[in-house]
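User: Predict the complex.
Assistant: Input components as received:
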Amino acid sequence: MKPIEISFEFFPPKTPEGIDKLRATRTQLALLKPKFVSVTFGAGGSTQQGTLDTVLDMAADGLEAAPHLSCIGSSKDSLRAILNQYRAHGIRHIVALRGDLPSGMGEVGELRYASELVSFIRAEYGDWFWIEVAGYPEYHPQSRSPKHDLENFARKVKAGANSAITQYFFNADAYFRFVDDAKKLGVEVPIVPGIMPITNFSQLMRFSEMCGAEVPRWIARRLESFGDDKEAIRAFGVDVVTGLCQRLVDQGVPGLHFYTLNAATATKAICQRLGA
Ligand code: FAD
C-alpha cells in the first residue's frame, strides 16, 4: 500500500514557553516523517518575524518548511520584501492566502483575493515557489454562493497554484463532492484534506463558528457530555478523527494535512492508528 503523505501545520509561538513547547511537539511529530510542515501568518504581517523565525528553525532541523503568507492589508512592496527574504533563505514552498483582517482594522491592501496573490507570486518569482492555496469543502463563510466560491477556488488554482489544502471538516462527503465539483471546473492539482484533531470542545466550537466548518450534532453532543473530562474528550476525538482519516485514505486522498495547534498528542495518536 502507498504510504500516506502527511503534513503538519503550526503557528508561530509568542512566548519562550511557547517556543519550547513547539520544539518538543515538532521533535515528536518529525518522527512521523512529514512531507512538509507549514507555519501560519497573521494577516497584515502581525507575525511576520515569528513566521520567518519558526520556518527557519524547522528548516534547520531538516524539515521542508512552508510559510503561510496572506495578502490582505499588505502592499505589494511589503509582500515582495517577505518573499525576497524567503527566497534568500532557500525556502521554496509557500501557502498563499487572502487572510482576514481583524474587524475595524486597517485597509484591504493592494491585492484583494488569494488568486491575485498567486498571480503576483508567479509574475515576480516564476516557478521558484511551490504554491499551496486554501479550499473550502463547506464553502468559505463570506462566499456569495457555493457556485461562486467554487469558481473562485478554480480561478485561484488556475492563477498558478500547485496544490490545495482544505479547511477542516467532519463530513467526508462534503470533501468528496468539493473535489468532484472542482475537477468539473478543470482543477487538476491535488486537494489535500485539512484535518483538525479534537481535543477541546469549546475551542472547537469557537473555531468552527468562525471558519464555517460544521461540527455534526452527534459529535458536539457527545463532546459536550464529557464536561471537563479531558481524557474522555481526547479518546473520543482520536476515534472520530481517525475514522474520518481512514475513510479519506481508503478513497485515495493525496495526503492529510493536520492542524496541530502546536500540540503533538492527538495528531500523533491519529497518525499512529492510521499506520502513517
Ligand atoms: P480567497 O481565496 O481570496 O477567498 C476569500 C473569499 O473571497 C471567498 O469567499 C471567495 O469566494 C471570495 N472571492 C475570491 N475571489 C473573488 C473574486 N475575484 N471576486 C469576488 N469574491 C471572491 N488565515 C490567516 O490569517 N493566516 C494563515 O496562516 C492561514 N492559514 C490558512 C491555511 C489553510 C489551509 C486554510 C484553509 C485557511 C487559512 N487561513 C489563514 C484562513 C484564511 O485566510 C481565511 O479563510 C480567509 O478568509 C480566506 O482566505 P483565502 O486565501 O481562502 O481567500
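Residues 230-250 form the longest helix (21 residues).
Let me know if you want any component modeled separately.
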